[in-house]
Amino acid sequence: MTPFETRGHVALSGTFGYELDITRISEEERSMIPEQTAMYHKYHDLIREGDYFRIASYRENHLYDCWASSAKDRGEVLVTYVQVLGQAMDIAAEKENMELPPATSVNYIASGAFGKCSNLQSVIVPDSVAGISENAFAGVTSEKLVLNFQSETPLKLMQSSEGSAYSFGVDDSKLEIHVPEGCEEAYITEWRYVLSGYADLEAVKQAVTNDLTGEYGTAPAEEEIEKETAKRLLPAENRLRVMMGMEPVEADETETLSEEIFNDGVQRENEEIQETEETDDSISFEIPAEEESIEDPEQDNTEYDGSEDTEDTSQDAEAETEADVEASVENKEETEK
Q1: What is the mean pLDDT of residues 267-287?
Q2: CA-to-CA distance for 9 and 64, rounded, in angstroms?
Q3: What CA–CA distance (Å, rounded) separates 24 from 18?
Q4: Cβ proximity of 50 and 74 under 8 Å
Q5: DSSP percent split of the chain into helix, strand, coil, nearest 5
Q6: Which of 16, 165, 322, 331 is the most buried if burial means most Cβ atoms within 10 Å?
């Protein structure tokens, strides 16, 4: 797992912050927070306003990352070097039952993480763990492995490659999965896609559409897509049901499964629409409607509003002005005489 100090150095080059519960970290890690915060303030201007240089890339050497932030005048340079583990850190334990630590230490379980725990029989996965890579339990040879997931929200199962069906690394017959009561269907709904080799529902439907279009030469009807999607997801769903001690779905029940898949897609779309509407509501405001005047049919609508007097007054003023001009002209003529 990545040391707290390393995580701070990496975050320094991005959006520096702590997305964790500081009450659940060790005293040693907590003592690093003031130091890392001070380091952020010290190098903030250099990182934000300086030039960025990539010195080495893990994608190329598979060993380490190295980058630098340099001042425009090259008078100051901050170099960051991060050693990247070539393989996931192994979890070695002789005990048969294991409870993983909080997410401040483990938030993702890597592929092959339990490769040295051959006699492992049960693992408690706390709700702070976000995801599990494919074949995480490869190497466990015990007759039975029980995975106890404490999160009510299904963890993310990460495929090793796109299109490959996910596997925990242990034969299904030896695997038993426990989730919080009432959350079984949520786990099955979320996990049946990756166990079938797809990222999500849209990926399945797209693959089905492409296959049926290529087979018949025309775009398939929505009903055909739903039925074929349900057919492809059924084996994975039954794998999960058996692991959870539930009755599998029969092949003739795929029509019901198809409806569930369709409803799941509609529900996700509605949730996205609702989120958009909530966002729009948060920045909208209402303009009060203008008051409408209600006229009484029996009321004389020729009420005095002063407009006539105003017009008359304006005409009188114009007449007086013309008279003054004429008088001024006459006086001028008399004076010249």
Answers
A1: 50
A2: 14
A3: 13
A4: no
A5: 45, 15, 40
A6: 16
